[in-house]
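Lecture notes, unit on protein representations.

Consider one protein chain, 180 amino acids long.
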Amino acid sequence: MKILLKTISIFSIFIAVISCASNSAAPSSVSAEKLAAILQSQEFTFMAKRANPVGGDVNNILNSFPNSSASRILDLDYGYTVVIKKNELNVNLPYFGRLYNPSYDSTKNGYRFVSKDYKITETPGRKGSTLYQISTNDQQFLKKMILEVFKNGKAYLSIDSNDRQPISYDGYIMENSEKK
């Protein structure tokens, strides 16, 4: 009976470890060759999965919610993106933080804009990552966006603005979807 109990406990621990390991590998990760081809084309989409607001006041508000965790990471729904094309930069991201010049139009309080006049500078990052520094000339509130793409397809986006606190997003890189 002890051997059976020992075998069942070892098997259940093995299953738990395997299931945790499978959750850490995101279904969004792409092969290295496909990622290199996507980045080489210089037309790709950053899909945001989590928002990381900066600032003590934002964290205090988030921690005041019932059953909240002490982390300042907010999981996002599917569809918040930064789409980079040859002649267009399309940004659709939510914002959590302090706005210094808020608008009465709530659709203007997030990062939602299309830029036709932008510049991307690509530099190699640490540990094989690639850094993209994006600056726009037709968006007066945006200082810069820094996108770091890792070898496994995951990415980290940091946005610095003139009229609000900085914010960052975790996500992954994917191909641009073609419109039908």
